[in-house]
């Protein structure tokens, strides 16, 4: 097949910085069997093209990116026809994919991978905050021939909007991120890790307040926070105000190679997000034997209580209690880790590629439903 994938970015020409690892894993697997063209709406400011993971990346760049992406897909289709168009993320990506597919008479797929279905006005986040966005999602998702999402909570959200969808987790590439079995935790200071950009959606204030509560209770721990700072030092200042100096270490962005030893050294991944379709990092942690405690979003919600522990969003007292419970009961921590490890290894990048290829065959065989 000849496939057009539409993505917001995450496909930098370095293959290491400004990339989405699970997206690269999917592209690499699809490109080994099919001709893959990836249309990145804004990986770089200027339009350009480069090879990556066996595919051809078409960076659209600044200036009417949606219209120019649709035109670029149509031009490539004239050179040699596509079989289908697939958007990874909804919003602008799905609009481009479905519009291009409709204009060419091709089937289209949309994968929900972010905040397309939520409206969090207090932090300015979500694709459904305004009428324009709600109408766009309603039209585009109903125009797609198949809709998928990474986790059960997102499937439930789609169902509440009257949309049928299939669960397809974006799995970890076990070749690049090899499995490591869960292990017992030794005595002494616990090693915690949190991975995610410092932003309002990841809600690090809830995380830091939970850690301050644990420190006040005499729990011995150190927390490594890995992720790009988009809040201009606000979280570092809050950590100082909460008396967490020496306990919490901010590392900024780290590549996958740099993240791996930090993750392997951890006893527990802690996430505090207000919303997630994944989070993908919980799968990476599970693959190396590290269980997750976090807010009830995405995979954390669907895996709890057998493979993760979930608490209400924004409840730092409940988050602190769950962290302490797992650290004080290593048998529980190991049970969570073993179950999470099994799930993440089973639903790896190969599983993801096979699931999408089966859908491709189905929609191409059926033809566009319009």
Task: Give a description of the structure.
This protein is an alpha/beta fold. The protein has two domains: 2-171 and 348-366, Rossmann fold, CATH 3.40.50.2000; 190-346, Rossmann fold, CATH 3.40.50. The chain has helices at residues 21-31, 65-79, 92-104, 131-143, 152-160, 204-216, 234-241, 256-265, 280-287, 298-303, 316-328, 330-346, 349-366, and strands at 2-7, 35-40, 48-52, 55-59, 84-88, 108-112, 146-149, 166-167, 190-195, 221-226, 248-252, 268-271, 292-295, 309-311. Strands 3-4-2-1-5-6-7-8 form an eight-stranded mixed sheet, sandwiched between helices. A six-stranded parallel sheet has the order 11-10-9-12-13-14, with helices on both faces. Helix 3 crosses helix 4 (131-143), helix 6 (204-216) crosses helix 11 (316-328) and helix 9 (280-287) crosses helix 12. 50% of the residues are buried.
What does the secondary structure layout of this molecule look like, with pairings?
Blueprint: E1 2-7, H1 21-31, E2 35-40, E3 48-52, E4 55-59, H2 65-79, E5 84-88, H3 92-104, E6 108-112, H4 131-143, E7 146-149, H5 152-160, E8 166-167, E9 190-195, H6 204-216, E10 221-226, H7 234-241, E11 248-252, H8 256-265, E12 268-271, H9 280-287, E13 292-295, H10 298-303, E14 309-311, H11 316-328, H12 330-346, H13 349-366
Parallel strand pairs: 1-2, 1-5, 2-4, 5-6, 6-7, 7-8, 9-10, 9-12, 10-11, 12-13, 13-14
Antiparallel strand pairs: 3-4
Helix pairs in contact: 1-13, 2-3, 3-4, 6-11, 9-12
């Amino acid at each position: 097949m000849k496939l057009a994938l539409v993505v917001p970015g995450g496909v930098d020409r370095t293959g290491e910085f400004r990339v989405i690892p699970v997206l690269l894993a999917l592209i690499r697997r699809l490109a080994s069997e099919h001709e893959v063209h990836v249309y990145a709406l804004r990986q770089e400011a200027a339009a350009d093209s480069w090879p990556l993971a066996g595919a051809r990346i078409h960076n659209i760049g600044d200036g009417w990116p949606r219209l120019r992406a649709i035109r670029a897909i149509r031009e490539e289709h004239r050179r040699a026809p596509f079989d289908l168009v697939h958007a990874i993320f909804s919003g602008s990506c799905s609009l481009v994919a479905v519009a291009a597919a409709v204009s060419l008479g091709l089937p289209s797929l949309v994968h929900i991978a972010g905040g397309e279905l939520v409206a969090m006005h207090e932090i300015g986040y979500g694709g459904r905050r305004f009428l324009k966005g709600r109408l766009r999602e309603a039209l585009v998702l109903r125009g797609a021939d198949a809709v998928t999402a990474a986790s059960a909570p997102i499937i439930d959200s789609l169902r509440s909007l009257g949309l049928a969808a299939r669960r397809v987790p974006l799995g970890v590439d076990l070749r690049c991120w090899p499995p490591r079995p869960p292990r017992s935790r030794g005595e002494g200071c616990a090693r915690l890790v949190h991975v995610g950009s410092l932003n309002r959606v990841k809600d690090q204030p809830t995380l830091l307040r939970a850690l301050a509560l644990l420190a006040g209770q005499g729990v011995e721990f150190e927390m490594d926070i890995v992720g790009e700072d988009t809040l201009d030092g606000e979280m570092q200042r809050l950590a100082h105000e909460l008396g967490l100096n020496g306990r919490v270490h901010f590392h900024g962005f780290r590549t996958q190679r740099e993240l791996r030893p930090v993750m392997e050294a951890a006893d527990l991944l802690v996430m505090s997000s207000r919303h997630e379709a994944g989070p993908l990092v919980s799968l990476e942690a599970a693959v190396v034997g590290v269980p997750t405690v976090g807010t009830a979003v995405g995979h954390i919600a669907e895996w709890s209580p057998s493979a993760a522990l979930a608490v209400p969003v924004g409840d730092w007292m409940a988050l602190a209690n769950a962290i302490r419970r797992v650290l004080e009961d290593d048998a529980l921590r190991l049970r969570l880790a073993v179950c999470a490890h099994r799930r993440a290894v089973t639903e790896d990048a190969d599983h993801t590629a096979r699931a999408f290829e089966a859908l491709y065959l189905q929609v191409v065989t059926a033809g566009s439903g319009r």
